[in-house]
Structure formats: structure tokens, C-alpha cells
Amino acid sequence: MDFLMSSSYDAVLRLGIQALEANVVPDFVLRRATRALLKRRLNSLYKSTGEEQLQALMSFVQSLKEMPIAVNTQSANSQHYEVPTEFYQLVLGKRLKYSSAYFPNTSSSLDEAEEAMMALYSERSQLQDGQEVLDLGCGWGSLSIYLAEHYPNSKITSVSNSETQRAFITEECGKRGLSNVTVITCDINTFNIDKTFDRILSIEMFEHMKNYQKLLRNISSWLKPDGLLFIHIFAHRSAPYHFEDEGEEDWMSRTFFTGGTMGSASLLLYFQDDVSILNQWYVNGKHYAQTSEEWLKKLDRELKTIRPIFAKAYGEADVNKWIANWRTFFIAVAELFGYNNGEEWGVSHYLFKKK
Asked: Are 158 and 138 in contact (CB under 8 A)?
């Protein structure tokens, strides 16, 4: 009976995904379905006893220590970072920050919220002008360019896995007359640098990582003796999990986060062999939910311009499918981080020092 119920459930999901990709699912239906899937996810995450909950966490920690630093790095590129930059210029804020912004109040604009979050990074990482800074996983250079402008005597080294991003940042720095940014393209599994830094900042890169023990050991070797590491990572409040494609309801894992990790608020505290925690903060998920709602609004406003971009990226026949995919992605992100008033999933900030 359980097998039959599971098979029927998967069949319904398959039909739902087909309807989604045909772009015929109303938003209110999609949102309700997303919340139902999130409820199922939570039921699987929360164990019946505290002992079982802790054991699940410790098993997850141990499993990460047996994995490579990152897996499926090329998938992250193809799913996100090699999509034409013109698309992100249309849907993201002015800084092209492809991660959670911080809304001082609900009426703040997306551009204001991007600036507010980066000001928060500067404060929490104790940045000072004249420092050597490594931006690890720099995206389209939102933080690197912000730091280069606000700390003109600092030297910023930006690391990305995407040649598209490197080219964009280099061009943008040239337009702005910024000569204190150097961009490196590499796979984090093999990245090394013969240089040490006063500050290392990593914004939503650790979600693509697995073996935090090895990664933090490497990062520690790039820190000066009094250097600090600041990490921004989205996380569930207590239970980490992998993004794995194990069935029809794992659409997000398959389409946008192959090889990814959903951390928990405490997860990185179990990897202090080479770094020591100095401070930790938790940003309520409603900030990320509002960020993604703003992305969705901009996508809908710019559909006519986005269509030819997607035709070039995905092929003319799949334009509607990928419009639906990106709309669904932004809706899913908004629903995930807005769930339970933003108290289930949110953003963890960590400040570590070198051991």
C-alpha cells in the first residue's frame, strides 16, 4: 500500500512538473504546492527525540568530512553562473547581488537592501581601509566592487568559478576606474594562492561546498596571523541536508542546486580544526523571501526583453519552459525563506579567526 501511495504521489508530481514547464500553473497553486512540499521536508527533518536529532546532525557532519570539497561544480555554472549576464542585470538589484539582501524596513527598495546587507558585512567582518581582502565566490562582483569603492586603499582579490563573471567584473571595474580589484577564475577544489589576507569574505559559496573541514583548512592558510574570515550562508535553523535528486519532488535539486548543501545554523561550528568562532548572527528568512519576491517582480516586468536572452541561452523551443523554471525558482525561494514567519530557514553569518 505504501508503495502504491508513493507511486501515485510521484505520478501526480510528474504531471504537475509538466504543467509547470508548460507555464500553465497559476502562482497561487504553485505557492500552495511549495508550502506543502516544505511541510513534508520539515516532517522528514525533525526527529521524534532530541537524541535522534543530534545523532542525525553528527552523522551529517561526519559524512561531509568524507567528501570532496565540492561536487558538481560544473552544474552550478551551467544552472546559474554561465546564464547570460544580461538576464541578471534585468532581475537583480543595481549591485547584481545574487544572494539575500537586508531590508531595514519593508518599504526599502531592492537596491537599498543590497547596500544595507553589504554595509552589514563590512561592520561584522571589521573591515578597515588598506587591508588585503579575498572575496571567495564573488558572483558578479557585487561585494568586490562595493569594497573597492568604499575602501579605496584596500586590495581586493575576487575568486569565481565562472569565466562569464570574471569578464563582467573586469569590464565593470574598468568602467568605474577601479584599479584595486584582481579577478581569478578557478575551481575551488584546486584553488590555491601564494598570498595571505587580512580579511576573507565568502557570500553564499559554502552552499555549493561539502567538505568544510578541508575547505576551512585551506582558507586558514590564506589568512594572516590576525586575519578574520566572514561567511554568509543560508541555512535551516537546526537540520542540515543535501540537495539530492531522489524523486519528482526534488525539482529544485535537479534544476538549480545540483550538488548543493542546505546547512544548519550550527553546522560550521563543528569544523573548527583550523579556525575559531568569534561571533555568529542569524538573519531572519523574511529578508531573503522579500529579496526573491523583488527578483520575481522584475522578471515579470522584463519578460519581453528576457525572452530573446533565453532563446539564445536555452534555445527557442525552451523559452517558455525556462521562464516558468525561473519564476518557479524565485517563488520557491520566497516561500522557503518566508515559511513560519522566516523562522525555519534564514541566513547565518559567522566570524572566525585563524587558529
From this structure: yes
pTM metric for this prediction? 0.91
Element (H, E) at 139: none
Is 93 in contact with 101 (CB distance < 8 Å)? yes
Measured CA distances, 282 to 108, 151, 180, 232, 269 (Å)? 20, 26, 31, 10, 14
**H helix runs in 46-84, sequence order:** 50-65, 73-76
Q: Which segment, 22-26, 39-43, 268-272, is predicted with the most confidence on average?
A: 268-272
Measured CA to CA, the distance from residue 341 to residue 285 in angstroms comes to 8
E strands within 237-344? 241-242, 261-264, 275-283
| Residues 296, 311: Cα–Cα separation, whole Å | 19
- Sort 174 into a burial class: Cβ within 10 Å, 0-12 / 13-18 / 19+: exposed
Count CB neighbours of 51 within 10 A. Answer: 9
Per-residue pLDDT reduced to its tens digit, 332-354: 999 999 999 999 999 999 999 99
Domains for the chain: give ranges and CATH numbers: 2-354 (3.40.50.150)
With helix as H, strand as E and coil as C, how does 17-43 read?
Answer: HHHHHCCCCCHHHHHHHHHHHHHHHHH
Amino acid at 147: L
Of 298, 328, 258, 252, nearest to 78 by C-alpha is: 258
Q: Which three three-digit cell numbers place residue 314?
A: 536555452
Q: pLDDT tens across 188-226, in order? A: 888 999 999 999 999 999 999 999 999 999 999 999 999
Task: Check: CB of residue 281 under 8 Å from CB of residue 352.
Answer: no
